[in-house]
Amino acid sequence: MELLSSALALDNGLALTPPMGWLTWERFRCIIDCKKYPQECISESLIKRTTDIMEKEGYLAAGYNYVGIDDCWLEEKRDANKRMVADRQRFPSGIKALADYIHGKGLKFGMYQDYGTKTCAGYPGVLGYEEIDVKTFAEWEVDYIKLDGCNVDASKYDTGYPAFGKLLNETGRPILYSCSWPAYQNNPDYTSIAKHCNLWRNYQDIDDSWTSVKNIMQWYAKNQDELVKYAGPGHWNDPDMLIIGNFGLSLDQARVQMAVWSILAAPLLMSVDLATIRPEFKEVLLNEDVIAVDQDPLGKQGLRVWTGSGCEIWNRELADGSYAIAFVNLREDGAPFTLQASFDDMKIPKQIYKVKDLYNDEKTTFCDIKGKFETRINPTGVRFYKFTPLCL
After folding, report:
1. Cα angle for residues 263, 288, 233 (degrees, 5° grid)
2. Structure letter (DSSP) for residue 86
3. Which of 148, 238, 240, 296 is catalytic?
4. Alpha-carbon distance 132 to 124, whole Å?
């Protein structure tokens, strides 16, 4: 097992690009009645089924390598030794056996806990049991911990989250650390958060709706000048899960979320039933060109650089000198909208570019240095391009 220094969570060598994987919460919430809902309840059966699909159907190969259980996996009480216990009916084989299964398929295992006395759903939290819980996670060979922030005095976040991260490092096991710390504060200390966490939730939970996706986009745009200072290899802003393939987004809207999340250098954490996802949504999630933008090694979070006519332009600089540019149409009228954008609008240097449409795989050359780039965007949709400079 790779050994780590016991200094800071950020020193764990993990998340050099934004983490990718699958989490239970947005799609499966706290469904625990396995008699009524056997295909949807939070259980080892759901996790194994998802693991198998990720291995066999291209998700792991595309980079989605974490499988994570969110809230509602615990028994309501700790055992006689004060240790956490997984629900014995829904996880009959135990967590260590489940971790072994996931690792055997070539994936990594993520789990949820809460810094408070109880989790957000009311199960035992870590407060007062931090050392024994971290020891238990390491013994179970967990690779990723999401630590929520319900049911605790907010004054404890600034010391408690770093202390928990230090305990994770002291196990000697590389455990990616996802913090919900700033999502519960009005004025987060991002310098400290970026120092102690691999990723962190900034804003409210995503819901399964276009309205929710838009709200998160607008919040990130409004706060982008502050947020971008702290994102980079090993430490990322997290706008929450991908809801692609569920009930609330059209195909165009799904492409918007995937494009903007990749511009934001966001973790790509699916929360969808992979057993029933429709092929067109699966194609969005497995788009290798868009994933490559998200995973770009420069690790520079992009920005919204223009708004007007009910549209937005988002730009991200990439390691090879290219630019990923998303033209988002927020209009809901009945026809695609034609947008003409200047170099200044797109915030790119005036020169000749090779342009690739990342969703349609169409290639063209943009060489009208005095003119404007024109694209036509579906209502609540996106056109997503990579602009690669060509020598003049």
Report:
1. 45
2. B
3. 148
4. 13
Determine the residue type at 90: R
| Lookup: tokens for 291 | 């994933």
Whether 273 is a known active-site residue: answer no
Q: If pLDDT is split at 50, 70 and 90, which confidence band does 183 have?
A: very high
One-character DSSP codes across 72-85:
S-B-SS--TTS---
Is the CA virtual torsion 109, 115, 121, 124 positive or negative?
A: positive
Q: From the candidates 11, 158, 205, 207, give the one annotated as an active-site residue.
A: 205
Burial label, 226 (beta-carbon count in 10 A; 0-12, 13-18, 19+):
exposed
- Can you tell me which residue has the tokens 């179970």? 140
Q: Is 313 helix (H, G, I), strand (E, B) or coil?
A: strand
Task: For residue 326, give the H/E element and its range.
Answer: strand 323-329
Look up 11 and say whether it is catalytic.
Answer: no
AA letter at 244? I
Under 8 Å between Cβ of 260 and 314: yes
120-125 average pLDDT score = 98
Q: Which H or E element spans position 338?
A: strand 337-341
pTM exceeds cut of 0.90: yes
